[in-house]
Every structure is written in structure tokens, then in C-alpha cells.
Automatic annotation (TrEMBL):
InterPro entries per record: Glutathione-S-Trfase_C-like, Glutathione-S-Trfase_C_sf, Glutathione_S-Trfase, Glutathione_S-Trfase_N, Thioredoxin-like_sf
Residue ranges annotated for the GST N-terminal domain, each copy included: 38-128
PANTHER family: DISULFIDE-BOND OXIDOREDUCTASE YGHU, GLUTATHIONE S-TRANSFERASE-RELATED
Domain GST C-terminal: 131-261
Name this polypeptide is given: Glutathione-dependent disulfide-bond oxidoreductase
Organism: Ruoffia halotolerans
Endpoints of the signal sequence: none
Amino acid sequence: MTAYELPKVWKWEDENSDLGGNRPTAGSRFEQTLPVGEAPFQLYSLATPNGIKATIMFEELKELGVDVDYDVYLINIGDGDQFGSDFVEINPNSKIPALVDQSQEPRLEIFESGSILLYLAEKFNKLIPTDIHGRTETMNWLFWQIGAGPYVGGGFGHFFAYAPEKMKYPIDRFTMETKRQLDLLDKTLGKRPYIAGEEYTIADIVNWSWYGRLVLDDLYEGSAEFLDIDSYPNVLEWARRIAERPAVKKGLEVEYKPIKD
Ligand SMILES: N[C@@H](CCC(=O)N[C@@H](CS)C(=O)NCC(=O)O)C(=O)O
């Protein structure tokens, strides 16, 4: 690994374009007008593991007979759309997915995928158990995914697939943690059919979007072999079962409308 001498004060070196790329500051970088459709829900997103949680949720609600009309727009995070003024108005954290419920007066802005799923589950009383035990267990695994997922995405996935060079130290560290998480899910799913118990819930949607896709080798090419995915048979069986759900298939195929002409 390249030797690195810590400076006294870290300084950002701008290797990025004017609009895209992360910076050590938050807030909008340019004026932007996002399209707004007629549907009660306006979703600004992209089909990443966090983004598909929202479209799968909407499609699951539709399958359950809920009248949940939504418009979905493409936020190209590579182009820096998430740093435009209208998007930042909805999500000051500049990450997809971001949702507006314009059936509320004034309109309601919802960001963080977990918050979006919980909001929709509570609003329509679906995909979250009503009894205290089931509900709490669903929340446990919902929050667990939001906290644990970044070790997989920002940790394992980043160093396995995207970092400019392969570095043993971070790959060892995040592979170990990812495998620990998979083992935890495998043990949990060895005892029950769904993440939080006997029912399919929002905890399955958020976890499948990361761990289901990971074990099905749909996230980082070659990672299924590298992680020895066959040693997590319960996760694999659950991942394949969820992938067959009509709403999941539809959620992955949703057409995103452009935000620019
Ligand atoms: N904790 C957030 C994470 C959202 C997130 O990291 N979104 C990524 C795409 S999967 C993003 O928008 N990245 C753009 C950027 O970092 O500039 C959530 O669950 O909604």
C-alpha cells in the first residue's frame, strides 16, 4: 500500500468536475427546477440498491390493492443532479431516494430510504405488523440494514469494485464484516421465512435490496464467488424467493422519467 504521511490539517484536493463528485461541504451547488407531476407521490431516484427500495415498496403497495400513484424521475448522481437546488430542498443530504407527498398540505418531503418505507408503511398500514412484537422486530431489522449496509456498499463494494487499486487492509476489514453480516442473516433466516418473522415486511424490502442483490451477484461482479455465497444457503433461498415476487420484478423495471429535456 502507498505510504501516506498525515498532514496536520486535512485539505480537500479538487479532482472532480464543478457539479458532480463529493465535497467536504453540503448544500446546493446550482439552481435547478425539477419536474412535478400530477400523482400524489413524486419520487426522485435512481435504480441503485437504496433507490430500488422505494420503487419495490410502491409496487408492493399496488399489489396489495393500495391506490398509490407515483411519478418517478431519474436523478443522475454521476452528473451531480443531487446537488441541484430543488433536490436539496427535498433532501438536504443530497442522496437518492427522495420523495415528496403532495397530498399533504403543505407538501411533505421525505428522505432516507428507511424513513420513506416506514412513512409509506404507516400511512397505508401495510407491510409492517400491527402487534408490538412484530412491529418492533420489523423496526429492529429496518434500522439494522440502514446502519449495517454502508459497511457493504461504502466499505466492501467500494474497495472490492471501485477503488483505483486493490488494497488488502480495507478489503480484509470490510469482507470480514460483510461475511459476519451475511452469517447473521443466514442464522436469522434459518429460523423463520422472513427477516422479521413469519410475514413479509419492509425489513425484507430494505435488506433484500442490498443483501439479496449481493448474494444473487447483481451488485459487484465476482463478489458472490469471493464471499463464498454458497455458505449462506438460507440467505440465498430467501433472496431467490423474494426476487420472484411480481412487485419486486416491477420495482426493478420501473421507467424513470428524465428531469431535463
Ligand atoms: N442512508 C441513505 C443512503 C442513500 C445513498 O447513499 N444514496 C446514494 C446512491 S445508493 C447516493 O445518492 N449517492 C450520491 C452521492 O453520494 O453523491 C438512504 O438509505 O437513503
